[in-house]
Structures are given as structure tokens and as C-alpha cells.
Design a protein that fits this description.
With 153 residues, the chain is an alpha+beta fold. The protein has a single domain, classed as Nuclear Transport Factor 2, Chain: A, CATH 3.10.450.50.
Length: 153
């Protein structure tokens, strides 16, 4: 069952919000494909104003705002360093309202031959079936040792 969203403090029956269960199911489907190396459903689920925050103090850390920026300044330089197909397998999903937390494990080898098998906790906020925000918690030491900075990639 979907909730009715408030529009400027007034109930608006034309604007529907996905339930926690629906948000969780959407991310389950996306991660099912990521586990096979298919990133298209993840990219397609990003809203145009999607923002991705990488925690920590690495050269990769910071907030990337806008789907185009995420794809060109984060995903592009990152995937350019990978020798093979990147996979990301979810271990656990926890949903509460418009937030879904995903504990997952990425796996790939860099072109330099270094394994980049990171553990993540993604805190995702969804709206109307689209990813609006993602905050990524990860092994920043692995990022610093296995990856070249994004501007150098």
C-alpha cells in the first residue's frame, strides 16, 4: 500500500510514495543485477538530481551532485580503473520509510592487478521509485591503496 504525500503541507492524492517494502524490493532487484555485473538498472534508477556521498577523507570522498556528475566524475573514473566486470553482492537490506540500507560486497581487479574487493554500507533515500541520495560507507584504506585518485584515472 502506498502513502499519500504531503504537498506543501496539504495531502495530495495524485502524488504517491512507495512503501518501505516496495523500496526494499526495488533495491533487491537492482542488486540482483549488480551481482551479475549489470550496472544498467542501478544507473536507470538514479533520479536526475541524484547525489552520492563517499565518506572519509580520501581523494574520492565528497558529494557528487546530479546524475550526470555521478556518472562522469565518480563512476567513469572508477570503472576506468577496472580490468574486468565489477560485481556488487548485497548481504542485507533494511528498510524504513523512504530509506533502505544495503550492506554489500564489491569485487573486481584493477588494471594494475590489485584486487579491489571492498565492503560497503549504502544508506539510500528513494522517492517515487528513484534513487535520490546514497551515502557510502566503505574501507577507505583500501580505496587509498588500490585506486588512483579520480582526477588521475
Amino acid at each position: 500500500m502506498r502513502d499519500i504525500r504531503l504537498n506543501h503541507g496539504v495531502l495530495d492524492p495524485t502524488v504517491q510514495v512507495m512503501s518501505a517494502g516496495e523500496n526494499k524490493q526495488l533495491l533487491r532487484a537492482i542488486f540482483s543485477e549488480l551481482a551479475k555485473g549489470n550496472t544498467k538498472p542501478f544507473r536507470d534508477a538514479m533520479a536526475d538530481d541524484f547525489s552520492w556521498t563517499v565518506t572519509g577523507t580520501t581523494e574520492w570522498s565528497g558529494t557528487y551532485s546530479g546524475k550526470r556528475t555521478v556518472l562522469s566524475e565518480l563512476m567513469g573514473p572508477l570503472f576506468a580503473q577496472f580490468a574486468g566486470r565489477y560485481t556488487n553482492t548485497a548481504q542485507r537490506f533494511i528498510a524504513d520509510g523512504d530509506h533502505v540500507v544495503v550492506e554489500c560486497r564489491g569485487r573486481v581487479r584493477t588494471k594494475a592487478g590489485t584486487p579491489y574487493n571492498n565492503s560497503y554500507c549504502y544508506v539510500c533515500r528513494l522517492a517515487d521509485g528513484k534513487l535520490e541520495e546514497l551515502t557510502e560507507y566503505l574501507d577507505t584504506e583500501l580505496v587509498a591503496t588500490a585506486l588512483a585518485p579520480p582526477r588521475a584515472a
